[in-house]
């Protein structure tokens, strides 16, 4: 397909603005490491919230979500729980405040704050750095797969070439070009560049989402949707079986459902709940989400930033997702029924190609490129912080100048991107990478990072043992069950990680009480901290324990329902189910009022 001249101009203008902005803030960002990686803790929480939302609006995830909506209908609203998407609620309610109180720069530096500096703490420090790098490499491969599929549908030039006997496809060449541009502006501007460009990107994406929502709302009738999909496609709730038969509509969708392994939807839902509780209690993984929290001015702003992310992300994003899904169902469905060998992950770019008018197409493509670039930039800003601050500065050159650390961060970013791209060449699909990242890899993260918050006896050796066992299990276990979706392997990976945790706990001695007292007094978590609490009480009779477990639990449950309403409102609006829409709007108002009283007012105090 050939883009119109105006569309190409819009895309090129956006890329130029992004690059210029990165160079413009580079002087401010390069002042010191805190400025480069955390924006000097000067960036307002609402900018960080918009940036965080933009960073989560990645193109690969959006392509996956459009495919899920196309295939699973209303039930696809539950599928982001695989991540789990409601970890943002746990972060908003209590974890953002706990994490921000540490005043550290990275998740690995937080290990010293929690466990001290003995051998076990140093091993834990290294293993969490390894996890951060592995997860970043996995996400780079995930982004590489998505942006390549997306770009080749729109750009007319065949960029394929050979390196020796290796063929680089046009899809891979486009991905390489876009990733190089993104890496360049992120290297120069650090966190200032990431947040600044992501706020711009958020504005572009929101306008694009509203436009797509309007096109879908005015172009498709409720009757057309009903005719194009199976009877229970519009049903939000489900039994143990998915019970969604596409025979006679688009027969090949049945094969897609079987390939995904989601036919037992009730069992899948239980697995998502089980995984979600552990993964959410573990807190944010050491990547862009954690960096946003650590970049805020204080704990109150960290909590508000996380709440804003939930609000501003869901409604515009699902206007786009639902809009493209129903346009594809109604107008592409008959063609897809006749076709064979369909790649459902290309439904999003196909729908853009077919339904978005000239001019708006350039804006939308710039917005989706912005979404990709924003998320990718966030990851490659977060990962080098671990290599520079937690390896190079801590163990190799502790007395180097700020300029040396910044130059090493440039080198680290480039190295990480190159290795991630190599992984991307061997990726099979966006869905495969999504499930592995969210289920297997994060399954190895959940056990140790949940226990670190809530149990005083969980020592540095337990953390190292749990993380090491989890990483090994995440890498090895899927190989023994090649026909099984990784989400169903989560309990096995989690169990192995727990075994590693408890072996480390009972082999190693308890951590230094002074370290534990400092952590507990500063962070103020709830959980099993009685021995530490008693020691602190001896020193300060006015010290009070955190007794908000049940209040936080209540707010998390209400928050999950509240978050879900922001997903369902645009879906019900575009498929024109107004009765269900009114129920969800009322539910949104009720949960908002409750959270205002039980959560937001508490933050203000």
UniProtKB/TrEMBL annotation:
Task: List the transmembrane segments.
Answer: 6-25, 45-72, 78-99, 119-143, 163-187, 199-217, 262-285, 306-332, 363-387, 408-427, 433-451, 463-481, 487-507, 553-572, 578-595
Q: Does the keyword Transmembrane helix apply?
A: yes
GO MF, one term, reads:
proline:sodium symporter activity
The entry's cellular-component GO terms read: plasma membrane
The membrane topology of this protein is:
Multi-pass membrane protein
Domain of life per record: Bacteria
User: Which is a Pfam family this sequence falls into?
Assistant: SSF
- Reactions mediated catalytically: L-proline(in) + Na(+)(in) = L-proline(out) + Na(+)(out)
**Could you provide one GO biological process annotation from this protein's UniProt record?**
proline transport
Q: Where in the cell is it found?
A: Cell membrane
What keywords are assigned to this protein? Cell membrane, Ion transport, Membrane, Sodium, Sodium transport, Symport, Transmembrane, Transmembrane helix, Transport
Q: Which PROSITE patterns match?
A: NA_SOLUT_SYMP_3
Q: Which InterPro entries match?
A: Na/Glc_symporter_sf (IPR038377), Na/solute_symporter (IPR001734), Sodium:Solute_Symporter (IPR050277)
Q: Which family does it belong to?
A: Belongs to the sodium:solute symporter (SSF) (TC 2.A.21) family.
This chain's protein is named Na+:solute symporter
Q: Which organism encodes this protein?
A: Aquimarina algiphila
């Amino acid at each position: 397909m050939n883009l119109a001249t105006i569309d190409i101009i819009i895309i090129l203008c956006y890329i130029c603005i992004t690059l210029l902005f990165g160079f413009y803030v580079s002087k401010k960002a390069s002042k010191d490491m805190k400025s480069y990686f955390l924006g000097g803790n000067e960036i307002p929480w609402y900018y960080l919230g918009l940036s965080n939302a933009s960073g989560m609006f990645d193109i690969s995830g959006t392509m996956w979500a459009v495919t899920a909506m196309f295939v699973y209908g209303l039930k696809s609203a539950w599928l982001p729980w695989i991540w789990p998407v409601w970890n943002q609620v746990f972060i908003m309610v209590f974890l953002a405040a706990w994490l921000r109180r540490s005043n550290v720069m990275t998740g690995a530096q937080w290990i010293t704050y929690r466990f001290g500096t003995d051998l076990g703490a140093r091993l834990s420090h290294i293993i969490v750095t390894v996890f951060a790098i592995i997860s970043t490499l996995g996400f780079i491969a995930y982004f590489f797969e998505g942006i390549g599929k997306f770009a080749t549908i729109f750009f007319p030039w065949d960029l394929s070439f050979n390196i020796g006997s290796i063929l680089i496809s046009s899809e891979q060449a486009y991905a390489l070009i876009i990733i190089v541009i993104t890496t360049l502006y992120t290297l120069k501007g650090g966190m200032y560049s990431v947040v600044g460009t992501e706020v711009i990107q958020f504005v572009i994406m929101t306008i694009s989402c509203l436009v797509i929502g309007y096109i879908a709302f005015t172009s498709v009738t409720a009757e057309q949707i009903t005719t194009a999909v199976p009877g229970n496609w519009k049903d939000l709730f489900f039994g143990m079986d998915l019970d969604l038969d596409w025979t006679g509509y688009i027969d090949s969708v049945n094969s897609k459902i079987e390939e995904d392994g989601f036919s037992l939807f009730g069992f899948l839902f239980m697995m998502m709940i089980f995984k979600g509780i552990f993964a959410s209690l573990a807190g944010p993984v050491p990547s862009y989400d954690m960096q946003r929290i650590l970049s805020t001015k204080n704990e109150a702003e960290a909590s508000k930033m996380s709440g804003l992310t939930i609000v501003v992300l869901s409604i515009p994003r699902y206007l786009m997702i639902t809009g493209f899904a129903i346009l594809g169902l109604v107008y592409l469905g008959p063609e897809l029924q006749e076709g064979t060998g369909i790649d459902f992950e290309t439904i999003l770019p196909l729908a853009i190609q077919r339904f978005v008018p000239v001019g708006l197409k350039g804006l939308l493509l710039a917005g989706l490129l912005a979404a990709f670039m924003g998320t990718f930039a966030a990851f490659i800003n977060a990962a080098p912080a671990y290599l520079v601050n937690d390896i190079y500065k801590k163990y190799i050159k502790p007395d180097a100048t700020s300029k040396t650390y910044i130059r090493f961060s440039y080198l680290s970013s480039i190295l990480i991107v190159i290795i991630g791209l190599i992984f991307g060449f061997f990726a099979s699909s966006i869905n495969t990478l999504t499930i592995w990242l969210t289920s297997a890899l994060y399954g190895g993260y959940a056990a140790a990072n949940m226990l670190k918050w809530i149990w005083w006896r969980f020592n540095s050796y337990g953390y190292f043992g749990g993380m090491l066992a989890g990483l090994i299990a995440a890498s090895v276990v899927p190989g023994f069950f090649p026909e099984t979706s990784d989400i169903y392997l989560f309990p096995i990976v989690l169990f192995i990680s727990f075994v590693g945790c408890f072996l480390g706990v009972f082999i190693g001695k308890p951590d230094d009480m002074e370290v534990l007292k400092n952590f507990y007094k500063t962070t103020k978590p709830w959980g099993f901290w009685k021995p530490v609490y008693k020691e602190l009480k001896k020193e300060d009779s006015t010290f009070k324990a955190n007794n908000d477990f049940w209040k936080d639990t209540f707010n998390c449950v209400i928050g999950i329902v509240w978050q879900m309403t922001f997903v369902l409102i645009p879906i019900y609006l575009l498929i024109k189910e107004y009765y269900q829409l009114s129920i969800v709007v009322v539910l949104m108002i009720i949960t908002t009022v409750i959270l205002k009283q039980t959560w937001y007012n508490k933050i203000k105090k």
